[in-house]
Amino acid sequence: MRKQLSQKGLWSHCVGEGAGVSCWNRWLWLWLLWVMVLPLFGQGRPDIVWARGQQAGSVDSVSISPDGALLASGSWDSIRLWRVSDGTLLRTLRGHTSWVKSVSFSPDGALLASGSWDGTIRLWRVSDGTLVRILRWHPTAGINSVAFSPDGTLLASGSGNVIQLWRVSDGALLRTLERHTDLVNSVAFSPDGTLLASGSRDYTIRLWRVSDGTPLRVLEGHTGSVNSVAFSPDGTLLASGGWDDTIRLWRVSDGTLVRILRRHTGQVRSVSFSPDGALLASGSRDYTIRLWRVSDGTLLQNYDQETGMGVLSIQFSPNGRLFGYGCIDATVVVARNPFWLAGDVNGDGCVDDSDLLAVLFAFGCAGGYGVQDLNGDGIVDDADLLEVLFNFGSGC
To answer: Model-level pTM?
Structure first.
């Protein structure tokens, strides 16, 4: 059964234990540790994991790597790579000559794309920071947004009033999409890679077919610039945040406006769905982050810790335990999600065998290993295993 861990399953995880250590002793020791650390697993109010103010200017974009171990932030003329678990600055990538407006990890985490107002997109190798390739558009048209396709073969960019589709393998420009009448602020691929959404300063959102660039639909309703667009994990909804202080949820299949979220008092600069699609986070110039329940639009949390002069970019970690955000006052922050389902390693809204196996597979790995490090202490150990076991079957 999905919600039960069978005796056979438990026994199979004891096979291969070190000499002299019995399976029963192992589980007794884990149970005792469980009792000792249980009080530490409360969810409580969201709080800061770390905050760093070492940027050269406002942090316009953040991106968390697919394994949850790294956070990239873009500001004036550089990109910084941080270790998510403790905020260690691992590397600074230099080469842009103007503001870095967008950063995005490839789906396999091997590459990082950065788009700048210097009119270039740069592809970097994450492992050592090597510049792999420069994609040049037009020197007078800055790059506002970049996004990888789910299979990692394409890169979309928003520049001026057009969208470009690039082939990642060789940097070839495949297609230019022209329908917007003002700056394109944000681009996003649907989870299945068949659609591309773009949000523009012309107050509209456009949906495009990726395979041939056909414009499919125009979503109208914002009364100001559309700053950010994001697809829900199942691809059925599109969220947009705008200069008009609102967030709008649209049904992708037919473009119907599902709901308007109206509690911000300043322009909404960034929106991000949690991995299970249950939450939406929004960052605003009103100095707050707000967490919303997607199903009915309920405002769950008004969050204002370390938000400085306003929040420009926000993204959930791959398992939803954390979110990272960048602020106008040159600060990048990682905070805990108070509504995270404890023990949900893969962020699918269910604590089950897949989560348990993920922790067991990474057991003993150190150095901010990523999503399997559930308590963020830099090592995948018994505490992480116990968090899964204690919550086994939750949310399923």
So the answer is: 0.87
